[in-house]
Each structure stands twice: as C-alpha cells, then as structure tokens.
Amino acid sequence: MHQELKAGIKAEIRRIDAVLERKSISEDVEMDKERILYGPFLKLLSVDKLAIITILELLRLNNSGGVIEGMKSARALISIGKAVESEYNAEQMSKKSNKALFDQRYSVHQLYGNGRLFNMAVRKAETKRSAALHPTDWTPVWPESTRAKVGSVLATLLMDCAKVKIPSFDPETNKKIVEEIPAFYHNYQYSKGQLIGVIKVHNYISEILSKEPIGTYIHPSLLPMLVYPRPWLSYKDGGYLAAQSTIMRIRHCPEQNDYLKKAHDEGLLLRVYNGLDVLGKTQWAVNKKVLKSVLEAWNTGKEFAKIPAAVSAAEDLPKPEDYETNSKARVKWIAENRRRKLEVMNNHSLRCDVNYKIEIARAFADEPMYFPHNLDFRGRAYPIPPLFNHLGNDLCRGLLMFGEAKALGPKGFTWLKIHLANLAGFDKHSLTDRAQFTMDHLDDIFDSADKPMEGRRWWLQAEDPWQCLATCIEITEAIRSDDPESYMSSIPVHQDGTCNGLQHYAALGGDIAGAEQVNLIASDAPQDVYSGVAQAVERLLKKQAAEGVESAKILSGKVTRKIVKQTVMTNVYGVTFIGARAQIENRLKETEGIPADQVRALSTYLTQQVFASLGELFTGARAIQEWLAESARRIAKSIPKNVVSPDTEEVEERHLGKGRKKKTSKQAIADQQMTSVIWTTPLNLPIVQPYRKMEHKQVRTNLQSVTIKDPTRSSPVNVQKQRTAFPPNFIHSLDATHMLMSAAGCVEAKLTFASVHDSYWTHACDVEVMNEVLRHQFIVLHLNNVMKNLECEFMERYKDYLYPVTLKIANPGEPVGEGMIAWDDERIRRKNTRITGSELADKDEFLSDSEASTPPKTKSNMFQFGDEDDEHDLSSVIIEEDEEELEAEAKALGKALRERTKTKKAAHKMFHSWEPISFPPLPDRGDLDVHDVAKSDYFFS
C-alpha cells in the first residue's frame, strides 16, 4: 500500500510540475487550475512522508464521527492537510538555519529548569529578548480550503491504489480465488437527516485493526515530553520544543488572536505565562505496579474496571421469514442490525482509546514525563498531549504519579488515608471520620495491594477503582516500611472544591446562605450542597402536598441527593430547562415508586422545584447571573456609533394584525450586530466569546465538495449564544484565574502542583500548605471587587456603542410622542415569556413533549441562561448546544401562549432606533466577608 501510494504521489507531482512550468496542459482545464492551487503545498514534503501521513491519518480516524467502519470525508481531508502542514512546520524548525532560535530557547530552558524564570523580572527580560530576536511569525497558518484540497488529492490517490486481497470462491467452478478489493472507498450516507460524504474502510481491514496492537499502525503525534516544556514567553511561543503551539486554543475567532497579541505587546500576560509554566514543570511517572494489573485485565479480553471487553464484529441476525412481505418486520430487522453494529463500533472505539493509553504508558514506563499546557478561550488550562494525561479518566490517573517522591512526614500519612476514603466515595464525612474509614478497611487494603486480580478485589467497589488501587498499594508500602513518616510517597493527593461555580457566585454576591452550602464558611463537617438542595426540594414538596398537589404527593420522600446532583452541578454552568428535565427524568426512571407513565410530567414538575430551591439558597447568585446575561444581550445587539447606517437610524414598521406585517429593514439592524462580549480576567487575559453566525464556504476538491466555515468574512454575532453562554463562561474564567494564581503561589512555597480544573493535587505531606495557598488566593481574587471592575470595563469598552430600541405607538392616529411606549428590546423577551408556576402543573394537557420542556419564568428560576452540557466534561457545557433547540423551545412556548390568549391585535406602528448603550445597575451585595474562607477547613477537601 505504501509503495503504491508513493508511486501515485510521484506521478501527481510530475503533473503538477508540468502545469506550474506550463509545459503541459491537460484536457481537464479545471483540474489544472486546482493543481496550481494545491501543488506548491503538496511539494513541501517528501513523497515518503506524504504517503505515511495519509495512511496513518485515515487509519486513526476510522470509526470516528458516528460512521461505522469509516469516517466523515470533510474531517478526513482537513485532518490529512493539517497533518502535512504540521510536519512541514516541524521540518522548518529543525533546520540549521534556525540554530539561533534553538540557542535562545536553550538558554531560556535552563532558566526554567532552575526556577529563575518564575521571577517576574527575569521573565519580562527574556520575553523582550525573544521578541527582539524573532519579530515575525515563522509559521503561517494554512487556510482551511488549502488543507482540504491537499488532503483530498492524497486521500484520492490512496483510495485508487490501496487494495486488499480477499479469499473467495468462484460461483461457477467453486474454485478458491483471491479478489482485490479497494481498502478505502468514498460514498454518501445520511447523518441526522443530512446527506454527507464518507470514506469507508473495508470490514476486512477493520477486523485486522481491531486485533492488532494499536502501536503497530498508529503513531500519536502529541506525546508527553521527556524534558521540561518550552516556557511561555509569548502567546504563540511555548510548549513543545520543535512544534509551535499557541497559548489559547482558538477556532474560527481571529478577533481573539488580535486581543492576545495586543495584551502580549503591552506586557499584560506574564502572570498567565507563569501559571502555565508551573503546570508544565510538574514531573510525572508511570505507576508500574498499577500498569501490571492493567495489562492483566486488558489481556483477558473481558470487561474489567471500565476497560471494555474485546468484541468481534456483529454478524447480521437471521432474516425473519416474512422479510419480503412484512415491512414492519423488515424495518425492525434493519434497525436491530444497525444497533448491534453501532454498539460494536462504540465498544471498539472505547477499546482503541484504552489501548492508546496503555501503549503510551508502556512506552514511558521508565521515563520521566512532562505535560505542556495551554488554555481554552475561557482561560481553563489543559495538557496539550491529548491521549494520556492527568485530566483523563480514572485509568489515566491511576497509571500516573508524581515523578518526584517526598517523605510523608507527620501529617502526610493522615492525608493519604483521607485521600483513599475520598476515592472510595466516603467523602461527605469529617476529615477524622475519613481517616478512620481507611484504618477500618486495612485488611481490604492489604489484600487489594497484594492480590489485586486474585484477591477479594475490594478496590473495584470504589468510584475510581484504578486510583483506589494505586493508593492501596501506597498505604500498604508505607505501613510496612520501618517508618511511615519517612516513606517516600509519589501519589498525588486531591483537594476538590465544593461546586466551584457556586463558590464563586456566592463570593461575588456576598451570599451567606449560599456560602454556607458550599463551604466558604467554617463548619464542623463538610456541607453538601447537593443534599442541601434535595432537602430544600423536599420541604417544598411537603408544603405543596399538603395543599393537594398530586405531583408533590407522589414525589414527597423520594427526592435524594443522587436525583438532584447532576442538575445542581450543571446549573451553574448554564444547563437549560430541557437539559435539566432530561437529567432528572433519567434519575426518576431509576427510582422505585414512580409510575412509569408519569415520569415525564413529574420530571418537569420536579425540575421546577429544583430551580426554585436553588433560587432560594443562592439569591445573590441568581441576581448576578441575570445581570451578566442581560448585559451580554445588550452588548451583542449593539454596534459602534460610527458604523450605524443612515437607513437604519430610525425605521418604521407597521403592524396591521395577524399575518399582515409589512416588510421592513429591521433585518438590516440584525445584520449589523457584530459585537462580541469581551472581558478581561483579573490576570489581564482578554476573552472574546466566539459565537457568530459564521458564513459557510464550499470548497471544490477532486473527491467531493467540502463545506467549511470562513472566519475571515464578517459575520453577525449569535445573540442567543452570546447571552446564554456569558454567565457560565465568566465563572469559568474566574475559576481558571484562581487556579493560575494558586499555581504561582504553590511554586513560591516550593510545592509540586497539578490541577484538573477545580481539583488541585500535591504530595500528601504538602496538602495543608497547598490548602492555605488556595484559600489565600481565593480571598485575594474576590477582594478585587470583580463585578464592579467588570461593569467599569463594559462601560469603558462599549461607551461609544449604540443599542437598538423599539418604540411602539399604541394608536396609529396619535402623533409620535403621545401614544408611544419605549420597549427597549423587552418586546422580544416577552414574546417568549414562560408560563407561570400556577399554569405549569396542567400545561402537559395541551403541550407536546417538546413544548412541555419549557420552564416557568419566576424569580426563583435560576441558571436558565446556558446550554446543554456535552458528553465529556461538565466544564465545557454551555458551548455546543444547537441554537435550533433553543429557538424551538421559544417557538413552542409562543404557540402555547397564543392558544391561551387569542385576543385580536390592534393595528399599531413601531419605530426602531438606536440609543447609547447602558447597563442595568449591579445587584446589591450581601454581607458575606470573604476573609471567612481562611477559617474553612472544607473549602477544598
């Protein structure tokens, strides 16, 4: 396959040379024009590298994107093109002509290694030196269209030459023959109602790949580093030594890049660089004892501790006897076979993911590891190596330990015991009780450490079994050592916040009641916000049950911490009512005593009560979130004063009743709304929300047309997403700021530090010191009067912006100014007004399932501004929910309200004009003294 592809690429390059040198013009003029576009890029790498990249990328993407035995064409083409681009950039970096660049980076690397670079004066000097030596960017970014064209020609050449030999029989002679069949082929299939191009992999290849060790055919490109990462001296200069990384993962938002450049040029990002360097300098190692057990479990081929079983390809079920005559039976047979194949595909993907992790762990078993970090657009830090790092699942975390060991000391052994109790799920008790829990299970711990696969396997009962096993081994070895206090421990001990988003909201709003629920105030035992919400809901249910509400009678006494936990956790990150209702519905299905035919209606009712309880517990948080959302809405609808078109300064719109609205240029106003919500974190990191109604562009390739987003074209903002995403994104940015501040504080205290968003890790002996740093940095952060600073920034940033205002004349006969009502943009919000609480109980009588998902709009309805959480990480909720779902929610409710109020509309006039933007007054802050956090032992625990 490789040799044939090389021959095909050589032939294509000869054709490219002929066209570029104008020696030959083929009959296909359009194809020659394409060669002029992609030819120079295809010639940047050797034929051998191009062939290897193409094969590896298509194998890597197999079974991705919901495509069974294949991949989406557009993704595959762009991935191949991007891989070619990355390899070329790496080649350029390694050339001798860049020796000066290497020399400068080596000297900076030495400063990083000895810790001097964490001195801000030294960092500032080195940053200026780096900028002077390298004033321009040596790695231009290829356009997406170029990536698609390069990927297309390489993928097409591979599909033309790659064949597999399949043994078969001649149907006439019954002799054994060998057929050559394409290993890859292009086709089209429906996905979510749309016809998309796919590249399919022959099932013979898929079966071989599923049985082979993944390391034989896949070579991950972004692995852990063996030395310290390159320190961050610029927003585009850090991470890997020979590959360029940017400080922020930016997609389709050139505006964000411009703001980062300006902040860097003004020297405002030094503390952000410093925090990322702290994370990158942490040394990691593979826990060989855990790896041994993982390999044993893997080799059995059975499902074990979240390692999926090895499953062979699903054979089609026998066709029903009435397959040809019974359409229902035929459809059922097809659907069941597809379900089985999808299940096998998903299982195979999960097993491949585990295989990746195991192979990387084996490769680095005797080596130190470092994870360079960068940020998402909200400022949250992530390791750049994606496949194996401490942000991964329980398996990854169980396989990892600190590369440096420290003696447990007088208190470290206690924290190690507390850590095991946390992993075992015994984390809602006092620290003393948690330590005692471990002592009460010493026999189980010893058995787990000595015979993890053959013994009683107590460690498998833990919520995080592989991390539990690693800690069992550590505790066993410490106890059996001559002196546990002198035992050199490498296990990271975690300190987790109590629903960090709510902690920040409570601090911002000065909410004493909320602060008590999330451990900002000292207490004898840790407060559990999820249990607190469950108890508050139960109180509401008992009250309403006494008033005769049937739903309350059914649910009373059945609301547990488990039922409300996911909703409370995701509320702070902006889950919609639809998403919250779905979460609670799933939990109610698992609850005994809930009538199956009433689960949907009861989940709608219970979600309303959960939101109401949250509003009562976190009144300040609710008010702040509403202020953030309203401010974002006004910003997203505003435009700079100097770009207001004369024809939209004042637009008349006449309403003549239902179905008789005269077309206006109001859409022209919406088309001018280009303003993103932009703010600056307390560490001076600028953040631009990337949500725009991006225009799509068709790129013609020789395989198929590919639709890509074109970020270079001016596009109006997506007002809905700008508004809904801002409250959770703002809280994420505060959480990220606290983490980076804590990282800097820990390196000053000479601690090893790692973080998983709102979970902070260090050695057992240093936990108490780290906790002091966490509390101190939280206090410093919130003493900055964050909300007032944000308001001032908005007022300054958008002071010359205009906001669209709608004016309505109730009686067209009256002159303008007498019957006029200034609506602001409230009219649009009223159009989508929620049904009130008293109406909610019986609204399922006339609403469909989708319509019944809409929440009541009451003052207690908190956290309704965000989007659904994605399937991987609660920290990345809010961002990806389809806009159509939100629009459908509003339309469904509007329809329901129209059914209730069928009053005939009177004719009226409306005028759209522009006014200087203003913001609502900030909510009053409560009486919480943020200094009280210093006294809370359970702030992080």
From TrEMBL:
Residues 850-863 have a biased composition (Polar residues). This is DNA-directed RNA polymerase. Residues 2-281 form the DNA-directed RNA polymerase N-terminal domain. DNA-dependent RNA polymerase catalyzes the transcription of DNA into RNA using the four ribonucleoside triphosphates as substrates. PANTHER family: DNA-DIRECTED RNA POLYMERASE, MITOCHONDRIAL (PTHR10102:SF0). Keywords: DNA-directed RNA polymerase, Mitochondrion, Nucleotidyltransferase, Transcription, Transferase, Transit peptide. Its EC number is 2.7.7.6. PROSITE patterns: RNA_POL_PHAGE_1, RNA_POL_PHAGE_2. Residues 646-667, 840-866 are annotated as: Disordered. Belongs to the phage and mitochondrial RNA polymerase family. It is an enzyme of class 2 (transferase). GO terms for molecular function: DNA-directed RNA polymerase activity; mitochondrial promoter sequence-specific DNA binding. It is found in: Mitochondrion. InterPro entries: DNA-dir_RNA_pol_helix_hairp_sf, DNA-dir_Rpol_C_phage-type, DNA-dir_Rpol_phage-type, DNA/RNA_pol_sf, RNA_POL_N_sf, RPOL_N. Pfam families: RNA_pol, RPOL_N. GO terms for cellular component: mitochondrial DNA-directed RNA polymerase complex. SMART domains: RPOL_N. It catalyses: RNA(n) + a ribonucleoside 5'-triphosphate = RNA(n+1) + diphosphate. One of its GO terms (biological process) is mitochondrial transcription.
